UniProtKB/TrEMBL annotation:
It comes from Sphingobacterium psychroaquaticum. Pfam families: FAD_binding_2, Succ_DH_flav_C. It catalyses: a quinone + succinate = fumarate + a quinol. Its main location: membrane. Belongs to the FAD-dependent oxidoreductase 2 family. FRD/SDH subfamily. GO terms for cellular component: plasma membrane. Residues 35-447 form the FAD-dependent oxidoreductase 2 FAD-binding domain. This is succinate dehydrogenase.
């Protein structure tokens, strides 16, 4: 049975009551415990720094050469918090409600409310660290609007918010490294989880420079390793982002929840060809002042595609500002899933723009005329520069071309209210877990969740677990479980290195990405998903029979690294398809064509699918078992989402 361990009592009192009821570890005993933190992005760095400040011994692991290179650094637009500085009607409950609604009523109420409640503290913490948030003329922190909300609650540092927040967390982490409370292992990749008597007690890693397989022990393990969007090959994620740590933990008994929930971001630089390895995000903040449009007719679009017309040649009356037309209340600030599906609809109608016809315009002419180019440059300058460097087009003079792309994954490792997985002692934080965003994440909420989990949740909840262990003895690093797991990792590495086929790992990854995008992307059908499952199974056989992994283990070997990650993506991709097939409804980013309203919006089936799907691994090439966490809504009414 899945026990979410949500505290009893009124929603607004659950977290405060729970913090008081949890057991504490006194300061003298904290230094007797060791906690392993895998991943050093916002969730991992904030957790490691906070736990070390409390007195715990912490080991951090990342595959980059520095925690500063974590993918959190790529977040652009901002971080939400219910401060109500604008005095425009915001509140903790409104942020909670917007997040529940934005996730299409597929998230756990208690976790989402805690996120909204803690959000107000995150900003104060980051300001104290020196994060240079934008400020108004009077000196107060500035806010801007984001999709899915009618209030301005997003704090930002130009288009570099993730970078600045990570530098704040990184500085606090470095302080603890210097004090000796944190031992940092860079260029180390977690390849398996060690369990003793059913509980997480360590990890097995590979030194990515020397190839050495190492064992590391700890009283608890925190996974802070981000999402799995790179299963699609082309995404806005850094190329190194992967699911391996989470997936190997899943194969040891951690349930994987809602894997089919993928967020497609509406404002990305469009694909230009097969040569690309990743896509580039254009921040959702641009939708504050940019207007999304396409020509009203296919004929005009075709002329644009052929270069016979420039965007400025299209008269105002011949432009379709389709988001403003269809959703007058929210306009261009509808949630990401809604904006993405509508952009796809325009392209499918033949009204796309650019040489490929697979794009829509994001136009700033009206904003520049209203505010002036200097003001627009102050707000979005680095984003405009990035667009210019990639496309060689000046967005101050002509509209940006954008199109949806895979960005974030709402699914992840199942966790209870304490962020503990189904394996005692193993926790999952940030994008690595499933808990806060339901079927669609609102913009500027990823940074909020990562820092909430790291700074304000895990320091309490991991202490409750450690206090109940009953002893303070170090973990026995000579326990047979460490040697057994290490040997399994070595065998898997050797199996990969023995592959001597004709295909590169990237060949297989690209094929997988095409299958996932085509059949498990923005639109899904039972027929397409069934076909995808068969194609992935065939591709998995091709991987293990005809892929070639170059080099040896005892060296820097990127071919080996990629092979292990793609092997995990193949297994995950099949589970994503199974989950999408099981959920015979549309909700948020999961859009089943068989389940839509007359107006083409997502149509939920609350009677049959108001649950979290949590999948249990039962063995290689065996069907996973579905467990259901029923979602209970006591504080919001389940209604059809409307942004009109």
């Amino acid at each position: 049975m899945l026990d979410s361990r949500v505290p009893a009592g009124p929603l607004a009192e659950k977290w405060s009551k729970h913090k008081f009821e949890m057991k504490l570890v006194n300061p003298a005993n904290k230094r007797k415990f060791t906690i392993i933190v895998v991943g050093t992005g916002l969730a991992g760095a904030s957790a490691a720094a906070s736990l070390a400040e409390l007195g715990y011994n912490v080991k951090t692991f990342c595959y980059q050469d520095s925690p500063r290179r974590a993918h959190s650094i790529a977040a652009q637009g901002g971080i939400n918090a219910a401060k109500n500085y604008q005095n425009d009607g915001d509140s903790v409950f409104r942020l909670f409600y917007d997040t529940i609604k934005g996730g299409d009523y597929r998230a756990r109420e208690a976790n989402v409310y805690r996120l909204a409640e803690v959000s107000v503290n995150i900003i104060d913490q980051c300001v104290a660290q020196g994060v240079p948030f934008a400020r108004e003329y009077g000196g107060l922190l500035d806010n801007r609007s984001f999709g899915g909300a009618q209030v301005s609650r997003t704090f930002y540092a130009r288009g570099q918010t993730g970078q600045q927040l990570l530098l704040g967390a990184y500085s606090t982490l470095n302080r603890q490294i210097r004090k000796g409370k944190v031992k940092s292992y860079t260029r180390h990749e977690m390849l398996d989880l060690v369990k003793i008597d059913g509980e997480a007690r360590g990890i097995i890693t590979r030194d990515m420079v020397t190839g050495k397989i190492e064992s590391h022990e700890g009283h608890a393990v925190l996974l802070c390793t981000g999402g799995y969007g790179n299963v699609f090959f082309l995404s806005t994620n850094a190329m190194g982002c992967n699911v391996t740590a989470a997936w190997r933990a899943h194969k040891r008994g951690a349930f994987f929840a809602n894997p089919c929930y993928t967020q497609i971001h509406p404002t990305c630089i469009p694909v230009t060809g097969d040569h690309q390895s990743k896509l580039t995000l254009m921040s959702e903040s641009l939708r504050n002042d940019g207007r999304v449009w396409v020509p009203k007719t296919v004929e005009l679009s075709q002329k644009l595609q052929k270069g016979e017309l420039n965007p400025s040649d299209i008269k105002e009356d011949d432009r379709d500002y389709f988001l403003e037309r269809k959703y007058p209340s929210f306009g261009n600030l509808v949630p990401r899933d809604v904006a993405s599906r509508n952009a796809k609809e325009m392209v499918d109608e033949g009204r796309g723009v650019g040489k490929t016809g697979i794009a829509v315009f994001l136009d700033f002419a009206e904003a520049i005329g209203r505010l002036g180019e200097d003001t627009v440059r102050e707000k979005y300058g680095n984003l405009f520069d990035m667009y210019y460097q990639i496309t060689d087009e000046n967005p101050y003079k002509q509209p940006m071309r954008i199109y949806p792309a895979v960005h974030y994954t709402m699914g992840g490792v199942w966790v209870d209210y304490n962020l503990m997985t189904t394996i005692p002692g193993l926790y999952a934080l940030g994008e690595c877990n499933f808990s806060d965003h339901g079927a669609n994440r609102l913009g500027a909420s990823a940074l909020m969740q990562g820092l909430s989990d790291g700074y304000f949740v895990i320091p309490f909840t991991v202490g409750d677990y450690l206090a109940k262990l009953g002893n303070f003895k170090p973990i026995d690093k000579n326990h047979p479980a460490f040697e057994e797991t290490r040997k399994e990792v070595e065998n898997n590495v050797n199996r990969l290195l023995s592959l001597n086929g004709s295909k590169t790992v990237d060949d297989i990854h690209k094929k997988l990405g095409h299958i996932m995008w085509e059949y498990c992307g923005m639109a899904r059908t039972a027929e397409g998903l069934t076909k995808a499952k068969g194609l992935i199974q065939e591709l998995k056989k091709e991987f293990w029979s005809d892929v070639r992994v170059l080099g040896e283990n005892e060296e820097l070997n990127m071919s080996l690294e990629k092979a292990g990650r793609v092997a995990d993506f193949l297994e995950l991709g099949e589970l994503m398809v199974d989950d999408a097939l099981n959920r015979n409804e549309s909700c948020g980013g999961h859009f089943r064509l068989e389940s839509q309203t007359e107006e083409g919006e997502a149509k939920r089936d609350d009677e049959n699918y108001t649950y979290v799907s949590a999948w249990e691994f039962k063995g290689d090439n065996q069907a996973e078992v579905l467990h259901k966490e029923e979602l209970v809504f006591e504080n919001v009414k389940l209604t059809q989402r409307s942004y009109k």
